[in-house]
Amino acid sequence: MLSGRNIFITGASRGIGLALSNKLALLGSTITMVARNEDLLVDNIRKLPTSKDQQHKYVSYDLMSLARGVKPNNHGFLVENLEKANILINCAGLATYKLMPKLTDDGILDVVDLNLVAPILLSKMAIPSMLKQGRRTPVPSILNISSLLSATGTAVSGTSAYAALKAGLLGLTEALAKELNGKIRVNAVLPALVPETDMGKNASANLPTVSLLDVVDTCVKVLEDESVNGKFVPADGGKFRTLN
Questions:
Q1: Which residues contact 110 (CB under 8 A, 6 or more apart)?
Q2: Which of 17, 32, 113, 160 has the fewest CB atoms within 10 Å, i.e. the most exposed one?
Q3: Per-position DSSP letters for the chain, written without gaps between them
Q4: CA–CA distance from 234 to each of 21, 121, 124, 143, 186 (Å)?
Q5: pLDDT band at 53 (very low <50, low <70, confident <90, very high)
Q6: CATH number of the domain residue 227 falls in
């Protein structure tokens, strides 16, 4: 079902975004990888599974600049590839590990811009072209990568700002799904702590853990299941289910 889809993935240079890029390319999708680190993107895109019908691309882009109204020289290339996408995966994120009084104002704004403002702007940019695709099967899709910290009562000291913004993604997911009324599916996956990621390596809290493979499998199920829309789906190693 994902073969032949054009998928735009942010945060694609490492962690969940990179793992999703590899899995979805293996399933036959054409991937546009978006991240800041061009060296990692160049190296990773060479390793993506590729057939003659797949032309993977990358865009080296600082999404915090997008949130601040600054358009780099390659902004047009970002827009061009986003407008071709059948699926947008908002995976880029920035975690904090400081108690609220110790956070700098700039640090808070960075977390806000990357974790929430950028996904809102990218969704806004993607929706018009997705709607032009019409009511085809499968319908276009937006997938937001949130966190178990945002909605399950799990509280980790030093992650208040991060948890708040990931909760904001859930509000975006549910409201936008209703607004689009089935013309574009919008869902959120809420991973537990993933030890293989940068956040998982740095976290010291007693948070439930999940393998990177389980997170990717959960995302694929959400993308493939046309009945799932406006849902919050935990990725915690348990059975496939929704929280709303």
A1: 64, 94
A2: 160
A3: --TT-EEEEESTTSHHHHHHHHHHHHTT-EEEEEES-HHHHHHHHHHS---TT---EEEE--HHHHHTT---TTHHHHHHHHHT-SEEEE-------S-GGG--HHHHHHHHIIIIIHHHHHHHHHHHHHHHT-S-SSPPEEEEE--GGGTSS---TT-HHHHHHHHHHHHHHHHHHHHHTTSSEEEEEEE-B-TTSHHHHH--S---B--HHHHHHHHHHHHH-TT--S-EEEESSS-S----
A4: 20, 24, 25, 13, 15
A5: confident
A6: 3.40.50.720
Judged by average pLDDT, the poorest of 29-43, 144-158, 183-197 is 144-158
Taking alpha carbons only, the member of 58, 36, 61, 37 closest to residue 47 is 58
pTM: 0.94
pLDDT value at position 126? 98
Number of domains in the chain: 1
Which residues constitute the domain of residue 22?
Answer: 6-235
Q: Name beta bridge partners: 185.
A: 141
pLDDT attached to residue 122? 98
| 17 located within any domain | yes
Domain contains 198:
yes
* Tens-digit pLDDT profile for residues 109-160: 999 999 999 999 999 999 999 999 866 668 999 999 999 888 877 777 778 8
3-state secondary structure labels for all residues of 89-104: EECCCCCCCCCHHHCC
Q: Tell whether 241 is covered by a domain.
A: no
Using CB atoms within 10 Å of the CB of residue 101, give its burial: 0 to 12 exposed, 13 to 18 middle, 19+ buried.
Answer: exposed
